[in-house]
Amino acid sequence: MLVEDDAGTADFVSRGLEEQGYVVDRAAAGRDGLFLATDGGHDCVILDRMLPGLDGMGVRAAMRAAGIATPVLMLSALGSTEDRVAGLTRGADDYLTKPFAFAELLARVRLLIRRGGAAATAAAPQTVLRCGDLEMDLLARRTRRAGRSIDLQPREFRLLEFLLRHVDQVVTRTMLLEGVWDYHFDPGTNVIDVHVSRLRKKVDEGFDRPLLHTVRGAGYRLGQEP
Amino acid sequence: MFRSTVFRFAALVFVLQLAAAAALLFGTAALVRGQVTAEADRAAAALMAELRAVRAAGGADALAREVAARAGGGPPPRAVLLLVDRNGTRVAGNLDAWPPSVVAGGGTRNALLYRTGHAAPEAMRVGAAALPDGGRLLAGAVTEGEARALRRLEEATGLALTLALAFAAVAAWASARLIVARLEGTLAALDGVAAGDLGRRVAPDAARDSFADLGRAVNGALDRVDTLVTELRVATDALAHDLKSPLTRMRAALERAASKAGSVEALDRALVEADRLMAVVQTALGISRAEAGIGRENFAEADLGLHMADMAEIYAPLAEETGRTVLFEAAEGPVVARVHRELLAQAIGNLIDNALKYGGGPITLSLAGRVDGVRLSVADRGPGIPADRRHQALRRFGRLDEARGGDGAGLGLALAAAVARLHGGALVLGDAAPGLLVTMDLPR
User: Fold this and answer.
1) Interface test with B, best of A84, A155, A181, A189 (most B CBs within 10 A)
2) What is the pTM of this model?
3) Residue of B nearest to A185 (CA)
4) What are the tens digits of pLDDT across the range B299-346?
């Protein structure tokens, strides 16, 4: 579900999500959004923070108070890490500042939906992560592909671990910086790309099927499908 | 008009001037009159004492003779004398009859009487005493000369007061004019600025007074406004310029994509340019927010050593791509300070990014705890920035070399400086001999 008062942004986001095969309910005001959300059945709620009447924060708080656990992605035009931090501490599951790239939004929505599903099944903590013939032992801190050991530096290990935890999902550069180093700033140039390309060399070089893919205009994806 | 400060000031000057003149003139007159009266009283009293002594020694006849003799011409020369017997009949003296207003033992008083043989009445001070045989003796001194002088003085006082009135009015008007005139230059300059001439200034004033201070203060404020406006204009121009190039490239890329030839690659270009535009806008917003002090509520204690190690780790691979290195020289033990983690990371990231783009050789990060704060620094071995251009480098959109700054918006250093100020610290550009040394001092 998308709650956004700016029609242009709402059109652009909902069209993009529909192209990706999602069904999008739309609301232009906080109260309508809350009404739709209480109906339940949404996998994810995208909430604009600045809404006429009841604002995004209020909608989210009301949802949680009503026991609706649907993951929330908060959008804001205020645009700074301040709002990001405030949004997360007040219980948004993720936060995105305008202007945003649609790919970033899509990647985060997918992550939230996946996470929501995982939480529901309450999987036991994994000690071994796999993708195809790539295998990572978190306890022994060893990585192997097709039986061959891959020697990774600590930061490369963490990077690959993050990618393995999000197999088949698109992860953006900012998501990598957040997930691996826990920073939210914009490192500029192609800092993250270099990290990934080094990892790719170690993971994919010498193998027929590449596992680490670049997703145009969005980021990266680890998976067996090309 | 009565609420006007200048008018009130003028009125005050006028009243005080007048009061001063009146006090001077009336004071003088009163003093002179007092002096004259006192002298005449003394003369009258002395005369009376002498005559009583004569009577005590020689009796009534001796007194009568003495009075007659002295009344003819003194001493004292201007004596007023009259001796009457118990019936009030004149015995001797230079008054024709006893003045009814003078009472024996009533003290000295002013009188206006005709002396024998004088055509006009004269002012005098007279006193009287009763004699043992029932007669009375009047003794006094003529003060007509002094009284005339006093009258003159009073006339002159009146005239002087009229003059003083005029002078006071002139003084009031002149002092008011002076104030207005001293303010006129400042007002004219401010009006000029308000009308759009930002270059107008108050003419320099050699006087060391409040008006000169006002002029200087106004000029200082106007200079600051001028600097800000210029900076803003430069920044806006630069922003427009910086946004224009990626927009142009994006447009070209989209055009190529629209024509289908190599559309995927062209769209990639367009996306890169869009990201760059977003980054420029984001950074500009970040600077404004840091300048406005937004973010202090998110300060938290952090070990900056871990921070710097993270930064070195994040940027190291990128540096190695071009055969360079990022080294972190850690301080001994943890260096803890209250910082905004994300903004500080962004600032250090910008400094490393700059060193990668414009500097050369190995990049050294260092951290040192000091007594009153911490010092972070980023140094490279490149060409550095000459001392006279460092100020420009710290300005928003202050790119030093258009040719080199292809994709930088010239905001990196400005953001780092803004972040340092947000923490109550400062960013200083120095010489790493060779290379650029950027130090950021933060309070603990």
Assistant:
1) A189
2) 0.57
3) B346
4) 888 888 888 999 999 999 999 988 999 999 887 778 888 888 888 898
